[in-house]
Amino acid sequence: MTNVTIWDGWIGGIAVGAYLLVQLILSGKLLGVSTGFGNVCSIVSRNLFFHTGDYETVNNWRLWFILGIPLGGLLAAVTSGGHIFASFSMGPMYDSVLPQALWLKGLVLVLGGILIGYGSRLAGGCTSGHSISGMALLNPPSILASAGFFAGGIIIVQIMFNLL
Amino acid sequence: MKKYSFLFMGVAFGFILSRAGATTYDFYAKLFLFQNLQLFWVILFAAATGFVGIKIMQRMKIKTLIEKESIDYKKKPYTSTLIPGSLLFGLGWGLAGACPGTALAMLGEGKLGVLFTIFGMFLGTYFYGLQMSRKQ
User: Fold this and answer.
1) Within the 63-102 window of chain A, which residues sit less than 8 Å (CB to CB) from chain B?
2) Is the pTM of this model over 0.90?
3) CA of A68: how far to CAs of A30, B10, B21, in Å?
4) Alpha carbon distance A37, B122 (integer Å)
5) What is the mean pLDDT of residues A102-112?
6) Secondary structure in 3-state letters for A26-78
7) Quick one: how far is CA B122 from the chain centroid?
8) CA–CA–CA angle B113, A2, A111 (5° rounding)
């Protein structure tokens, strides 16, 4: 697994907050990621949901934004100074609790992804839209959603690491 | 701002997520086991920085730099599915050790497990779309 340079949490947080502000000043758009996943669904689906409302236009800023994020990860890895390893390892903790067999591990991760994708649409946003943008606006529904995100995370991780 | 410019915005955001430690799977396990609060501080300081900046921008009635438009600080509404949705999201977040933005950045770092997670996110989003169009 690629080792990346990591800043102190508070510095990383200020950087993320500063990013949010720069995006707002440049474009007037609030940071959010999960809605963009639906843009990709629009490309492959004729379903009306993916062509109306938020998805009236598919080729919008959200699509380009989510295409750029992986390149940012690559840039971060390249500038971290070490070697880049493409691997399915997730680090010692997750590797110790998730199945060893790749297909089974993959199945668990697909399930996790489905919960994330489906849950973020039900909640109207993800950690970016609710926990960063929404909490920066002190928006009560976003604060509530963030509490729900954390509650869900604590429940599943406590089960995985302490009960199983 | 041109939509294509958001490719570069994405690069900046992905880079910052990585440096913040948000692309390190085990930080999620450590967060929810209360062993290391790195990502808690990231979210808290990000929201606090955003809060202070937005307050100043609102006070000064700042317009967007390029198009000179007023900024809409649009707040997400409460819905009846917000609480169950956020809990489901949280279960997936802890299970996969990633969220939508960070999973994409992890892909660029060569963390291949997120290929499964990202595929699942598309499926989950697609299921929601199907469900919504059936209701109409």
Assistant:
1) 63-77, 84-94
2) yes
3) 16, 4, 18
4) 6
5) 98
6) HHCCCCCCCHHHHHHHHHHCCCHHHHCHHHCCCCCHHHHHHHHHHHHHHHHHH
7) 15
8) 15
Distances (CA, A) of B104 to A13, A69, A95: 19, 6, 20
Nearest to A13 among B8, B49, B129 (CB): B49
The nearest alpha carbon in chain B to A51 belongs to: B129
A87: β partners:
B111
Q: Cβ separation of A137 and B51 shorter than 8 Å? A: yes
- The pLDDT of residue B136: 66
For residue A1, the model assigns a pLDDT of: 84
| Coil, strand or helix at A87 | strand
What is the distance between the alpha carbons of residues B66 and B63, in angstroms, rounded to a whole number? 9
Residue B87: φ, ψ to 5°: -70, -45
Chain A residue with minimal CA distance to B4? A64
Q: What is the interface size between A and B, counted as CB pairs within 8 Å?
A: 515
Contacts of A11 (CB under 8 A, 6+ apart): B45
Report residue A32 as tokens. Answer: 């959010």
Average pLDDT over residues B87-112: 98
Confidence of residue A32 (pLDDT cuts 50, 70, 90): very high
Q: What is the pLDDT of residues A125-158, one digit of tens each?
A: 999 999 999 999 999 999 999 999 999 999 999 9
Residue of A nearest to B34 (CA): A154
- Is A58 within 8 Å of chain B by CB? no
CA separation, residue B128 to residues A45, A127, A143, B18 (Å):
13, 18, 23, 29
Estimate the share of chain A in helix, then strand, then coil, as percent rounded to the nearest 5: 70, 0, 30
Query: What are the tokens at B89?
Result: 């999201």
Instruction: Give the DSSP letter of residue A72.
Output: H
Q: Provide the 10 A C-beta neighbour count for residue A46.
A: 7
Interface confidence: ipTM more than 0.95: yes
